Here is the input.
Amino acid sequence: MRVAAIQMRSGLDPEANLAALDIFLAEAAGQGAAYALTPEVTMIFPENRAQLRSVAAPFEGHEQLARTGELARRHKMFVHIGSLPVPLEDGRFANRSVLFGPDGAQVAIYDKIHLFDADIAGLNAYRESATYKSGDRAVIAPVGEFTLGFSICYDMRFPKLYNALAKAGASLMAVPAAFTVPTGQAHWHVLLRARAIETGSYVIAAAQGGEHANGRATYGHSLIVDPWGKVIAELDHDEPSVLMADIDPAAVIEARQRVPALANGRDFTAPRLHG
Here is the structure.
C-alpha cells in the first residue's frame, strides 16, 4: 500500500489551510496513495486560548471536515486529518483526529490522550490540560490491508499506548505532530524509530514545519519508518511537502517473528524502595 505524510505550515485561516490541503491531497492521489495523513492542528493553528475559542467550530456540521470528506471521496483514498480543536461542553477542547474512508464517510475519531503539563525551571508552568480535555480511549481502524493505530504528537512519548495498539492488532501507527524545533532536533527521530522497533509496526509521522502566523516555529522532518526501525522516507526540511512510501504488511509479520517482544511481554509488580 502506498501512503503519504503531508507536511504543512498551517496558519490562522481554516479556509487557507484547507485550500493548501486540497492541493497536497491531489498530489498524493496522483502518485497512487491509498492513505494520507496530515499534521496535528491541520485546520487551525491558534495563537492563544482566546483565539482558539473564537475560531474552533463545533464537530457536528464542521464545514472544513465535511469538505475533507468530499476530497476523500473524490480521490478514493483514506484521508486522516491529524487533528483539529473541537469545543466541549466544559469550555475546553478535544484535540481530535478524524479518519475518512474512500467513500467520504467518517471511519473513526480519536481524542489525544496525553497532554503536556509541566513546570520548567525559569519558565512559567505550561498546562495543556487547562485548554484541552484528555481523551480516554485508544483507537484502531482498518485501512486497506493494515490496521491503523491512532496517536497525536505528545502521545509518542508513552510507549504503553503503542504497545496496547499493537496488541489490539495495529500494524501502522499514525503520529501527526507539531513538534517544536528544539525537541524535534533532540527527540523526533529516536522516539519515532523506537515506537516502530518495540511494536514491529510501520510509523507514519506527518509534521507541521516552519514559521507559523501564530509566531510558533515547528520542526517539520515528516518521516515514515518501517517495522525494523529503518527510516524509509523523510523530508529533511520544514517546507510544506508530500512524503510518499510503499509499505508491506509482510514486513510487519517478519519483524514480529524475528523479535517477538509483543508476545514475550509479561505483567509484573511495580518496584518499591527497600531499606
